[in-house]
Amino acid sequence: MGFRLPRIVNAKLSLKWTLSSSETTVVPKGHFAVYVGEDEKKRFVVPISLLKHPSFQNLLSEAEEEFGFNHPMGALTIPCSEETFIDLTCSLQSS
């Protein structure tokens, strides 16, 4: 009989939880899924604690201006590059 030790994962790797079969994936409690990207949209699961940060709220405002409530992926879509999103969210999580 064995046990698992918790994994310590780089923040960028844990944030970049991109899944191809997103329909079958359960979003963990305290998190939400967003689609990010300019051409090809990728799915990220992020903690809800990011919602309180002004920088993330600016991204949400941009999403509202571009998509309103009609998001093409069927979920919240953030209109920025994947790299910009990762850099921003990682800096917010470390603060």
Automatic annotation (TrEMBL):
Any single GO BP term: response to auxin
Origin superkingdom: Eukaryota
Pfam families assigned to the protein according to its UniProt record, in alphabetical order: Auxin_inducible
This protein's UniProt keywords: Developmental protein, Growth regulation
InterPro entries (UniProt xref): SAUR_fam (IPR003676)
Protein family according to the UniProt entry: Belongs to the ARG7 family.
Protein's recorded name: Auxin-induced protein X10A
Organism: Hibiscus syriacus (Rose of Sharon)
